[in-house]
Amino acid sequence: MKKIIIAMLLGSTLTLSGCGYNQLQALDEDTNAKWSEVVNQYQRRADLVPNLVAVVERYAQHEKEVLTEVAEARSKVGSVQLTPEALNDPNAMKAYSEAQAGMTSALSRLKMVVENYPELKADTMFQDLQAQLEGTENRIAVARGEYIQSVQGYNTTVRQFPTNLTAKVFGLQTKPNFNVENEKAISTAPTVNFGNSKQP
Question: Is 193 part of any domain?
Answer without folding.
Answer: no
